[in-house]
Here is the input.
Amino acid sequence: MIRKKLSKVSLTIALLVSVFNALSFGQVGLSANEGLSVILLGTGVPIPNPARATACTAVLVDAKVFLVDTGRNCVVPLNQAGIQDVEGIFYTHYHSDHFIGLGEILLDLSIDGIDKTIPVRGPVGAQEIVGAIIATYRLDLSYRLSHHGDKFSDQVMAPSVTEHEPGVVLEKDGLTVTMFSVCHPPIEPAVGYRFEYKGEVVAISGDTVVCPELAAGVRDADILVAEAENAQMFGPALGMARRDGDSRRLGMIEEGMEYHAETLALAKMAQDNRVKKLALTHLFPSIPPTDAAEARFIQGMSDLYKGPIVVGRDGMRVDP
Ligand SMILES: [Zn+2]
Ligand SMILES: [Zn+2]
Here is the structure.
């Protein structure tokens, strides 16, 4: 009887240990992939939402993983997706919700033993941002190295950074990544990316209103991962700010709405430019991940766009 109990206890402990290992040391493993695919890791905006990390998208190129932006808390869905290595990182612009999670991601890879220099590419500003984040890890890095020795990988905490103008920024092993300008005024530079591999195209909008530059960058994409704003859903918040005579709040909301991609304009642009699948991210307002909220968010889009529309949730995989 006692023996039975003990074995049950040890079984439970073994189970807990294996779950802990899988969760803490990234042993879940990314499921197999061929060609291009996407995992939406962070679908939120700066307004805190427990269900959504901020801007972060994984582009899978066969078994390789590239990240576009590294937002707040993105390390959690990244770990849950089983991503154990990163081939490169691309930045769209330097609003903090697009880069603030970089240190957490690199630290996670270091703990997992990834020992290599990760190339980071972005428009002008990348050196300043990445350099400053890495600088905040100086003490942390010294503690971990003196404690763990060479079990802790420090190379990953020193990424290589290159700043680019729009155009082809990476061409390797059949993959071409092109940076294109988008329209996020007054933020300059602001860009999107187009990944082309084995005849497939994945485009990432970055933060932008719908504009001709965006349309040119995403034309004929198999998947367009697009930031999206539902202007209608701001009605109540705008009304309340007006009723309260709160011009500061009113201004903040209106200015926030000014430089994002309105859902109906986005749908029309996607249809006109033969986008085959639309995956929405950077959802503004930051709706809960429920069917009802998502249905409201895309209301009217299907009248203008005939392809499939995916409303992103953190960790969601989107295939062409
Ligand atoms: Zn932005
Ligand atoms: Zn943003």
About this structure: The first strand starts at residue 36 and ends at 42. The chain has one domain: 39-318. The CA atoms of residues 183 and 211 lie 7 Å apart.
